[in-house]
Amino acid sequence: MLIANHWTQSIREIVGAEAALPPGTSPWKQITPALVVYPRTASEVGKVLRFAADEGLGVIPRGRGTKVGWGEAPTRADIVLSLESLDGLVAHEPGDMTVTTEAGMGISDLQTEVTATGARLDLDPPFLGAATLGGLIASQSTGPVHVRISDLILGMEIALADGSLVRTGSRVVKSVAGFDLHKALVGSRGTLGVITEMTWRLRPSPSASRYLTAEVAPVEVADRLAALRQSEVRPAWTLIENGRWEGFPPRRIGKESVLVHLVCEGEAEAVDTHLEKAAEILGAGGNGASGSAGGESDILRMAIRNFPHHHLDWIPCRIGVLPASVLDLFGEATEFSLMAHMESGLVHAGVPRAGIAAGSPGEGVDRLRRVAEGMGGYLTVEAPAEDGIDIWGRRRDDFFLMEAMKKEFDPKATLFPGHLFGNT
Fold first, then answer.
1. Distance separating alpha carbons of residues 182 and 48, to the nearest angstrom
2. CA atoms within 13 A on the CB side of 412
3. CA angle 39, 102, 151 (to 5 degrees)
4. What is the C-alpha separation between 262 and 206, in angstroms, rounded?
5. Alpha helices, H only, 256-343
6. What is the maximum span of the chain, computed from C-alpha positions, in angstroms?
7. If we measure between CA atoms, which residue out of 396, 130, 399 comes closest to residue 139?
8. Among 94, 109, 115, 212, which residue carries the largest CB count within 10 Å?
9. HSE-CB for 410 with a 13 A CA cutoff
């Protein structure tokens, strides 16, 4: 759809001619936006949205575009609203362990800023060097090392579909106002509002960080992990994976083994003690590997954070099951590459595009989804829609609540129209 000249001129009057450009390539085969708009302030974001709503245009919010093509293509996409120019650091309070940023700031840029003061944002998502903070919230793409993003957000500024700007929460740790609205925006994929600013809760950087990788027989995994939970060892996180990929250590393992990865953080002496105890419990012995931050531990983190998106021959999927069902999932889905965060039950999976018993990639996704749904869970595809591949699966029983929320926040379907099941 081509925007009429007077519309183009109106948008350029809002953001400037240099900030309203032709789109170049489109992330969707079916549709090409007419303009990419680069507002520099939250006020400009609101004015663009108000104009679009009045004119009946479809707007696609975007950070740096690492995940904009995921999911169903929009039914209308007149304007891509890029937040790349809203990339500033608004306020950093090291004493309060808080930082306020604009939505277009890069995640790695923020980590560099706060690390200098002995703090960190406790997230390690995929596309770390390219993804923005606003895109991270909208996509809820935390990677295998899962953290509840809403627990780290103290406040937000949001541009609603009608152009109005609202603030939720605050910039101080003690406030909890607006928390439910935060949760509504996390994972909303730009369909409910455009996040322009957020305040984050920081955590102290540990003085030591070490990892352990242990190869464990599948029949022993449950007992060994239970013993680990009952011990004094307190890992920062624990993951298991079935070794169907060339990750870290850089080798494949057979169906006879499961890899258990964990990281311990804190004071160096305590970390060493906990890691030794963990190795004993997991029976690492000659099958184990360990390392420290700044070396192999960072290599392990890089390999894990990008799983399964690093493998171009896989369809990346996100699965949610109860933590108690994770090992059952591993036992039933042996033909797929799996990595699970044990504490949350979040599983990332790679479905091969070829060479699986299920047949076509779409059939592979369907099979893995049936396994997850049979355990009371779900599966969504973290990739652009393709013929024969169902992105979302069946509608949940509470989907009517999502529809009602969309109509309340965006009654004219201005924001990412058609992205959820093709009609919301």
1. 23
2. 17
3. 140
4. 15
5. 268-282, 296-305, 326-332
6. 71
7. 130
8. 212
9. 29
The CATH code belonging to domain 209-299 is: 3.30.70.3450
Q: Which two tokens stand for residue 320?
A: 């949610």
What CATH architecture applies to the domain 314-381? Answer: 2-Layer Sandwich (3.30)
Assess whether pLDDT exceeds 90 at residue 88: yes
Tens of pLDDT, residues 306-353:
888 878 788 999 999 999 999 999 999 988 999 999 888 999 999 988
Order of strands, edge to edge, in the sheet holding 194-201? 89-93, 98-102, 194-201, 153-159, 165-169
Determine how β-strand 337-341 pairs with β-strand 289-292. unpaired
How far, in Å, CA of 195 to CA of 185, rounded? 8
Question: Could you say which architecture CATH assigns to the domain 1-205+394-424?
Answer: 2-Layer Sandwich (3.30)
Q: What is the pLDDT of residues 359-381, one digit of tens each?
A: 677 888 999 999 999 999 999 99
CB 261 within 8 A of CB 238: yes
* Amino acid at the residue 81: L
Query: Among residues 153, 268, 166, which one has the least CA distance to residue 200?
Result: 153
Joined tokens for residue 16: 């400037």
Q: Which two tokens stand for residue 413?
A: 């379907």
Domains 209-299 and 314-381 share a fold: yes
* Sign, Cα dihedral of 310, 313, 315, 319: negative
Listed by start position, the domains of the chain span 1-205+394-424, 209-299, 314-381
Q: Beta strand pairing status for 194-201 and 258-266? A: unpaired
- DSSP secondary structure code for residue 195 in this structure: E
